[in-house]
């Protein structure tokens, strides 16, 4: 199956034909089951399965327990200020470019730099200024982008699936070099922070003032360094480094894809955009500052419905894969034999006509709380579900809401000059960018 527009339409056809799942046989030994119905997806996601990409069961569950405090609401609250700041920088850039006469804005380009900016501040308290200089001067930022690029290229070129071949190729060498840069950057921060905590004790408060002009919050590294399991054991430097690197890769492109597609869907549906804007303007009316706070997020009811509908229609991650070492039962007394690769299709489940009538239509009213109650909780799974779901889900939802709210408050978003063709490159993107037009709004238009 290809991951371009034609490939995605072929998946739509598959879902319309089979409705819950289908099996693929690749030669005599390798088989894969593709599942796209909530009732079939549920037993698989609830099983303590082993992800193909990540650490094994025992190691994973200990690490997951130690990571969980880093995503507690009390910690996430402190990041809202950072999300506001990073969005403001992006908007200042947009205003400058509009004044210079720019028309089409490739959303991915600006939004992914902005989500990277935020994530670096939340993970390491590192202010890279990447939005000011497009990250070009920063070795670490270039390495992050290069790694995502190389991962996509490798995925698409079959001979490079073999490590032996890949690591001897020019691209494989560039990959290793970029990994070294990313790993040594993280290792240096972790080491430095550990020795500060050893010497000075844990950071005093969540909102100390920092040198670089934004409030220094407790970041992910601090929380991970202080996290302890039931035996009082913490994470090693090596484990913290690996987790921080995972956050950077799991967190910035996914959130950027989500935000870009929300803006796209609202550009295509001005009536919903207007309704979001009045909700946001009502919320902020009479305030001195435009800062969105943690408590504001729960008031953005309709905007959140629009975000969820966008995550359904343009889910950043197309599927999660699982390998089960024992037979798995699914409805209809069917068994998926041990050793099969299961591809739990988020894309397919979100577009299953048995679950979502007219699945290709963007309709935020599907997420009206009353309607949501009538659906299986496995019908909407952009962050996967079960024990191995996305640990960054609340972080991502908070960031998306802040960025979308501030953007609609300040700009009207309009369709760009050319139609888009979807394309999964690890996350859902498009072939050749996602152009949108922006019209700055004056405060008087509130
Ligand atoms: C809209 C944004 C995001 C989407 C759609 C998303 C989606 C997902 C999905 C589908 C998985 C399951 C992968 C699997 O089971 O194979 C996952 C796992 C994960 N995500 Fe996210 N994610 C997002 C944002 C984030 C952010 C912001 C972070 C961190 C700051 C993050 C960190 C992680 C981690 C660490 C895992 C692995 C969890 C585990 O195995 O226990 N994600 N994400």
Automatic annotation (TrEMBL):
Enumerate the SUPFAM superfamilies for this protein. Answer: Cytochrome P450
Molecular function GO terms recorded: aromatase activity; heme binding; iron ion binding
Residues the record lists as binding heme: 390
Q: What is its subcellular localisation?
A: Endoplasmic reticulum membrane
Q: Does the keyword Lipid metabolism apply?
A: no
Xref: InterPro entries:
Cyt_P450, Cyt_P450_CS, Cyt_P450_E_grp-IV, Cyt_P450_sf, Cytochrome_P450_Monoox
Gene Ontology annotations for the cellular component aspect, listed alphabetically: endoplasmic reticulum membrane
Its UniProt entry gives the catalysed reaction(s) as: testosterone + 3 reduced [NADPH--hemoprotein reductase] + 3 O2 = 17beta-estradiol + formate + 3 oxidized [NADPH--hemoprotein reductase] + 4 H2O + 4 H(+); androst-4-ene-3,17-dione + 3 reduced [NADPH--hemoprotein reductase] + 3 O2 = estrone + formate + 3 oxidized [NADPH--hemoprotein reductase] + 4 H2O + 4 H(+)
Keywords from the UniProt entry = Endoplasmic reticulum, Heme, Iron, Membrane, Metal-binding, Monooxygenase, Oxidoreductase
Origin superkingdom: Eukaryota
Cofactors needed by this protein, per the record, are:
heme
Describe the function of this protein.
Catalyzes the formation of aromatic C18 estrogens from C19 androgens.
Output the PANTHER family linked to this UniProt entry.
Answer: CYTOCHROME P450 FAMILY 4 (PTHR24291), CYTOCHROME P450 FAMILY 4 SUBFAMILY F MEMBER 11 (PTHR24291:SF210)
- Protein family according to the UniProt entry: Belongs to the cytochrome P450 family.
The protein in question is named Cytochrome P450, family 4, subfamily F, polypeptide 3
The organism named in the record is Electrophorus electricus (Electric eel)
Instruction: Please state the gene responsible for encoding this protein.
Output: LOC113590686
